[in-house]
Amino acid sequence: MENVLTIRNLTKRFGRLCAVNNLSLTVDRGQVFGMLGPNGSGKTTTLGMLMGVINPTAGEYLWLGEKPTHHIRKKIGAVLEHPIFYPYLTGRQNLELMAMIKQAPTSNIPRVLDLVELTGRENDKYRTYSLGMKQRLAIASAMLGDPVILILDEPTNGLDPMGIAEIRSLIQKIASDGKTIILASHLLDEVQKVCTHFAVLKKGNLIHSGPIDDVGKGAEVVEVSADVADLDRLLDTFTGLSALHRQNGYLQVTLKDGFKSKDLNRFLFEKGVVASHLVTKKKNLEQQFLEILNTHDESL
Questions:
Q1: What pTM was computed for the model?
Q2: Are 149 and 75 in contact (CB under 8 A)?
Q3: Less packed terminus of the chain by CB within 10 Å, N or C?
Q4: In this structure, are 168 and 229 located in the same domain?
């Protein structure tokens, strides 16, 4: 895989505050890379350095194997914080102005309007747009130069559920075209739905990086109940049992490596017990995220 972004020991200090500390990671072509972290973790500062609006204190980064230049940055589209458009101009007029600033051809405007599904509203004043439409126009502006990389900082911030779903669909559409997307977000469920890889930052430190597909791996947990007395005592005799506790009215069975829910179900059946409820619980990104943060706290 080709490295689209390589970060080496990137550091940013604001006086005594170290906003980003010795950050190193890579993003490969075609990935949708999510940067996660609590408020103050350094996500926005990192994106600001990568876009050249914040000067690093130390370290370096390479885009497409090259040091950042004006030529390289033309291959990158970005939506950082709140986009600024003129409220009294139409969506199209705002894009025409942005195309002139970015030296991008205005012939791209119909294509990006269609991409973000604003065709038909392009001649309406920007001030009449909903928050979701404004965010989609910002992404259209970032796509004017047909970049190979798109950077999004909290792209669903403040949106209602329908607006979040629209931005999610748009990110998936852009990614399906082979673009590399780097986004910062605190909405863990959305990151899990759209990203292929993710990194977790805390107080400026990188504490985890890996594929989204790795989320949920590890010991299998099965939620079980049955109309039988002393079910917990019976489960204690199951050779595949690693841990057992009760939660939300069900027994939560953590299995040893190599054991699956079907093994537990077979064990119960052989003991003459038919489970009324037996569900494998998948670990979601929120649980993984909290585990990563807690593990990092314990290691300090």
A1: 0.79
A2: yes
A3: C
A4: no
Mean model confidence pLDDT for the chain: 89
Looking at the structure, tell me whether residues 91 and 173 fall in a common domain.
yes
Q: Are β-strands 58-63 and 3-14 bridged in parallel, bridged antiparallel, or unpaired? A: antiparallel
Judged by DSSP in three states, 74 sits in: coil
Given a contact cutoff of 8 angstroms between Cβ atoms, the answer to whether 13 and 38 are in contact is: no
Residues 225 and 94 in one domain: no
Please answer whether residues 137 and 83 qualify as being in contact, where contact means their C-beta atoms are separated by less than 8 angstroms. Answer: yes
Q: 137, exposed or middle or buried, with CB in 10 Å at 0-12, 13-18, 19+? A: buried
Question: Which residue reads 């689209």 in tokens?
Answer: 4
Q: What is the pLDDT of residue 66?
A: 93
| Tokens at 238, concatenated | 């199951």
Count how many domains the chain has.
Answer: 2
The three-class DSSP label of residue 92 is helix
pLDDT of 299 above 50: no
Cβ neighbors of 171 (< 8 A, separation 6 or more) are 32, 152, 155, 181, 183, 194
